[in-house]
């Protein structure tokens, strides 16, 4: 596994070694001892799997209590994945890191606790899996607007079309009005 720090050093892009031939491929997608040594010493308690269609944007989500670190990957299709640092004490507060994740490139992204997370579907469909460091707690979930100008994420929106959003994401708040971490 290759581990690459992005422009925010706590956000890590992971690229597994893939062994393949005409029959298919094999790769390790997670190894606890190596992850703890190379990324962070943590425990994952919940795995999630979602499916979305092209032009769907999910995020920017986080839990203000029970913050979740997420190890995300795409098992089918392609997405643009984003992590936004919302730790007020961080020198990277309000900055974002992004990467294209796909079934083809097999890359994964570590989104630490204290970050808002979102993704935009670039392919016809995408299946997205993620390991979480804490349990889902809907009462603590918050949403920051995907297009907050103070964050200025450079989303690769297809043909300039408006992304498809949930009501929760439409109702998201700007970073200056959001509950953030100390």
Automatic annotation (TrEMBL):
<feature type="site" description="Participates in a stacking interaction with the thymidine ring of dTDP-4-oxo-6-deoxyglucose">
    <location>
        <position position="136"/>
    </location>
</feature>
<dbReference type="InterPro" id="IPR000888">
    <property type="entry name" value="RmlC-like"/>
</dbReference>
<comment type="pathway">
    <text>Carbohydrate biosynthesis; dTDP-L-rhamnose biosynthesis.</text>
</comment>
<dbReference type="GO" id="GO:0000271">
    <property type="term" value="P:polysaccharide biosynthetic process"/>
</dbReference>
<comment type="similarity">
    <text>Belongs to the dTDP-4-dehydrorhamnose 3,5-epimerase family.</text>
</comment>
<dbReference type="InterPro" id="IPR014710">
    <property type="entry name" value="RmlC-like_jellyroll"/>
</dbReference>
<comment type="subunit">
    <text>Homodimer.</text>
</comment>
<protein>
    <recommendedName>
        <fullName>dTDP-4-dehydrorhamnose 3,5-epimerase</fullName>
        <ecNumber>5.1.3.13</ecNumber>
    </recommendedName>
</protein>
<dbReference type="InterPro" id="IPR011051">
    <property type="entry name" value="RmlC_Cupin_sf"/>
</dbReference>
<comment type="function">
    <text>Catalyzes the epimerization of the C3' and C5'positions of dTDP-6-deoxy-D-xylo-4-hexulose, forming dTDP-6-deoxy-L-lyxo-4-hexulose.</text>
</comment>
<dbReference type="Pfam" id="PF00908">
    <property type="entry name" value="dTDP_sugar_isom"/>
</dbReference>
<keyword id="KW-0413">Isomerase</keyword>
<feature type="active site" description="Proton donor">
    <location>
        <position position="130"/>
    </location>
</feature>
<dbReference type="GO" id="GO:0019305">
    <property type="term" value="P:dTDP-rhamnose biosynthetic process"/>
</dbReference>
<dbReference type="GO" id="GO:0008830">
    <property type="term" value="F:dTDP-4-dehydrorhamnose 3,5-epimerase activity"/>
</dbReference>
<dbReference type="GO" id="GO:0005829">
    <property type="term" value="C:cytosol"/>
</dbReference>
<feature type="active site" description="Proton acceptor">
    <location>
        <position position="61"/>
    </location>
</feature>
């Amino acid at each position: 596994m290759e581990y690459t720090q992005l422009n925010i050093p706590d956000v890590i892009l992971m690229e597994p070694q893939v062994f393949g031939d005409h029959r298919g491929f094999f790769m390790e997608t997670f190894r606890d001892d190596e992850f703890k040594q190379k990324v962070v010493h943590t425990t994952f308690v919940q795995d999630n799997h979602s499916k979305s269609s092209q032009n769907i944007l999910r995020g920017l989500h986080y839990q203000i209590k029970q913050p979740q670190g997420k190890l995300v990957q795409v098992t089918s299709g392609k997405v643009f994945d984003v992590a936004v640092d919302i730790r007020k004490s961080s020198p990277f507060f309000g900055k974002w890191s992004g990467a294209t994740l796909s079934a083809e490139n097999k890359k994964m992204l570590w989104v630490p606790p204290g970050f808002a997370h979102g993704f935009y579907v670039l392919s016809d469909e995408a299946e997205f899996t993620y390991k979480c460091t804490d349990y889902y707690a809907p009462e603590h979930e918050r949403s920051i607007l995907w297009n907050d100008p103070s964050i200025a994420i450079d989303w690769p929106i297809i043909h300039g079309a408006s992304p498809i959003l949930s009501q929760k994401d439409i109702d998201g708040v700007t970073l200056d009005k959001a509950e953030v971490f100390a």
